Every structure is written in C-alpha cells, then in structure tokens.
C-alpha cells in the first residue's frame, strides 16, 4: 500500500533518484534468471560495449558494480591508490566533502582545496600545487564534475590542460554521478583515468548500479595499488571478463534489462540531443529563478549546472519549509539544502527522463509555494520567462516528424 498516496503523478524534481521511463520499468518487470546461463553474459557483453559510449571512451574498461555512487567512489580509489598516497581533492559542496571524507578514511593523504560553496574548483591552486610537485608526490587529482549540492559544474578540460601543462603523471579521477548522460562528458578526450556514475541519476534507472570506467593507465595502476579491496576489486571482474561469464558475483537481472532499455532510449534520442535537452532545462530553470528575483547558489555563469539548480532563498525564509510544502501541498519533490547551505537553498533537479512541460509544472509549483511562504513573487513570472525561451528553442521530436 502506498501510504503517502496523492492523486496524479508525483513531480519528482530532486537531483536523483530521478524519474524512470515507462519502457525501462516494463523492461525490468521480469523474473530472475540464472546469470550463468548463456543469455546473461550475452546481454552483459552488449551493455559493457554500450556503456562506453556514455563515457565517450573507446579505450576505457567499464565495471558495472552492484552498488551506489559511494561504492563507485571506493572502487575508483582503492583500485588505483595505496594508503598514504597524496591526492588533491576539491571541496566545493556536500558530495565533494563526502568523497574527501572517504579518501581520508581510506588513509590517503588528502590535500584539500576548498572553495566557498557556490564556487567551482580552484584550478589556480591546482596549477600551483602541480608546479611545485616536481617529485610527483601527487598520485591523483580527484574532482566532482557536477557538485549536486550547489549546482556547480567544474571544467574538466581545464583540469586536463593543467595536468598536461606541467607534464604531471597524477591520475585524473572524476565523479560523474550527476553529469554523465546529461552533461558534456569526454573521458578519452579529457584524459580521464577513472570516471564513475550511479544508475539513479541521468541514466534514469533505479538505484543499485555503480558504473566505473577505467583508462588503460588506471588499469596499470591497479596492478600495484595496495589499498585493501575485496568486493570492489577490478581483478575479479577482469578474470570473469576473460572467460566470458562476466560476473564475479550476482548481478541484478532486472537492472541489467533496465540498463539495456535505458541505453536504447538514450541512443534513440541521441546522446548529443540528450545533452542539449538538459541545457534547455537548465537554461529555462535559471531564467525562472531570475524572474522570481532570487539568486542562483552558483556564483558564476561558467559553473552553471544543467542538471541541478540550487536556489538561494532570502534570509527570512527557511528553504526546508519550501521543500516540505512542495511535497505536502503540491505533490512536488524538491531537493533540500545540504549541510552548510541547509535552510538557505532548495534544489530543482532537472536531469534524466524529463521534458520541458514537466519542468514548467515544477516551476509553477515553486511559484505557488513561494507565495505561500510569504515571498513576493508575481505568479507566472518564472513560468513566462521559461516559456518564452523554450517556445523558441524546443526542437521537433525527431521520431515524430
Ligand atoms: C555528485 C555525487 N556524487 C556521489 C553521490 C553519492 O551517490 P550515492 O548516494 O548513490 O551513493 C551523489 C549522490 O547524490 C552525488 O550527487
């Protein structure tokens, strides 16, 4: 029984977990199967080939692990680094903070580069650290591509450029949890050594699969990395890849069929079109926020995120009340402000299986809530600004022309 029933559809606008497309739900509605039968390895083989496309890699080796983004982090770190290794890691919001905490608990020597929440990674400091590090003590640069807590997207191409400028051999480890499949992401071109994502974000699947992709250099590093790892050991996967059965332990059959359907939908739309759609959703949201007279938590345009917008509320309002009201009165789920920005921002997630008219429903809901809590918003202002932009920019649906 759904004990929180409300009529109609819940407007799910948290930045993950996101809406699951109906064809994916149908594809997952099936019995368990013997994963040692020939069918599952055959399916797995196509998935391993096809997930490379969402990372934009031909040389990477993917691992589809029964875990979440947090486990994918651990897989990336423990397979490539040894305790005591120095990492440079950027602290810009709650998820980069959690990744840094994991690095510290795994006993790496973490060189934290902190910025105000709302700013991107400070790449000038990275450059000076790399310039000083002629002995190459820095073993990895760890960065969250899209900080989901603040709606900040970091410039990965710029990180690669800095590494190359100093000819620094550090591994480049990237959390793409709220970016891959939604934002421009180019593993090979940007020389990323480990990239990772979680199934419940832009892939629009249930939670439960972490996808980690390792470059040849990362695989080489895994041969000497001394961190203790058992469940996450890439070697166990590689052994089963070699013999063609693929799984060192039991995969979720339903998630595998779901992933097949999710990838088929993404390829049918076209990955570049998916990215362009996210840009429209992000732009429309930002226009609405401006029209409401509110501020984006993201402090500069170069860091604006097309997957999540953190909206700063005036000091006399509690953003948690906005999120609570959204759910209680309008059946709209918004993201809370986390940690340092708790009470100060609410987040609109605009990623995954979502279209523009759905977003307009969310924006209309936010306007009514703002009015409910005493913010002097002109009803329709944000929706009108978003519509004016979208009406000029939504392309025809290719399969319907
Ligand atoms: C950028 C980012 N990294 C990592 C995580 C952690 O992922 P999970 O909750 O799936 O463990 C999240 C979760 O929202 C995230 O947004």
Automatic annotation (TrEMBL):
Substrate binds at residue 347. The modification N6-(pyridoxal phosphate)lysine is found at residue 201. GO terms for cellular component: peroxisome. SUPFAM superfamilies: PLP-dependent transferases (SSF53383). GO terms for molecular function: alanine-glyoxylate transaminase activity; L-serine-pyruvate transaminase activity. Its EC number is 2.6.1.44. The keyword Transferase applies. Its cofactor is pyridoxal 5'-phosphate. It comes from the Eukaryota. Keywords: Aminotransferase, Pyridoxal phosphate, Transferase. Pfam families: Aminotran_5. Residues 16-291 form the Aminotransferase class V domain. One of its GO terms (biological process) is glycine biosynthetic process, by transamination of glyoxylate. The keyword DNA-binding does not apply. PANTHER family: ALANINE--GLYOXYLATE AMINOTRANSFERASE 1, AMINOTRANSFERASE CLASS V. Belongs to the class-V pyridoxal-phosphate-dependent aminotransferase family. This is alanine--glyoxylate transaminase. It comes from Aquilegia coerulea (Rocky mountain columbine).
